[in-house]
């Protein structure tokens, strides 16, 4: 099931890529069914918190009519930043599947203390997620030369 869900996550990331957003996609599942989707829209909306994870969490909360996302799983193409990690913790998501690491501002791979929370994290090390983010930033740098 992970392969299907990461493919759906990458589809979301591609939506962001096509509109020149950092290509991050996210889905939330309940009982192996996708209940929410999100992709980065920060540049399009000029709202700094419009990260894929935040949008996806908000969509899941609306769908369930609850802020508590206990026992749900999140798939995200790029390791979450500290803001998104906080939202993941606050929403009580149980399982987090990360497509690729974020060496610049990824919360989980940084070397500072992390709280002991009931969150199972699985690193997928997905090459497509990694290639997509690298392609985006190469294109961005090329445009600024």
Mean pLDDT: 90
How many individual helices? 5
Q: Please give the share of residues in helix.
A: 40-55%
- Indicate the overall shape: globular
Intertermini distance: 42 Å
Task: Detail the poorly predicted runs.
Answer: none
Number of strands: 5
- Helix-strand pattern: HEEHHEHEEH
Structural class: alpha/beta
| Strand neighbour order, sheet with most strands | 2-1-3-4-5
GO molecular function: metal ion binding; tRNA-specific adenosine-34 deaminase activity
Protein name: Nucleoside deaminase
Pfam families: dCMP_cyt_deam_1 (PF00383)
GO biological process, one term: tRNA wobble adenosine to inosine editing
Could you please describe the fold and organization of this structure?
- 36% of the residues are buried.
- The chain has helices at residues 2-18, 42-45, 52-64, 82-91, 127-143; strands at residues 25-30, 33-39, 73-78, 95-100, 120-123.
- The longest helix is centred in the N-terminal third of the chain and has 17 residues, at 2-18.
- The protein is globular.
- By secondary structure, the chain is α/β, with parallel strands linked by helices.
- Strands 2-1-3-4-5 form a five-stranded mixed β-sheet.
- GO terms for molecular function: metal ion binding; tRNA-specific adenosine-34 deaminase activity.
């Amino acid at each position: 099931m992970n392969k299907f869900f990461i493919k759906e996550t990458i589809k979301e990331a591609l939506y962001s890529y096509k509109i020149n957003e950092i290509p991050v996609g996210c889905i939330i599942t309940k009982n192996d069914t996708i209940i929410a989707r999100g992709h980065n829209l920060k540049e399009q909306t000029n709202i700094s918190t419009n990260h894929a994870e935040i949008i996806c969490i908000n969509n899941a909360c609306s769908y369930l009519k609850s802020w508590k996302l206990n026992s749900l799983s999140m798939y995200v193409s790029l390791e979450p930043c500290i803001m998104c990690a906080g939202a993941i913790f606050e929403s009580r998501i149980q399982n987090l599947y990360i497509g690729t690491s974020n060496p610049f501002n990824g919360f989980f791979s940084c070397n500072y203390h992390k709280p002991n929370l009931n969150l199972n994290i699985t690193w997928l090390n997905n090459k497509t997620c990694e290639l997509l983010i690298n392609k985006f930033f190469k294109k961005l740098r090329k445009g600024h030369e």
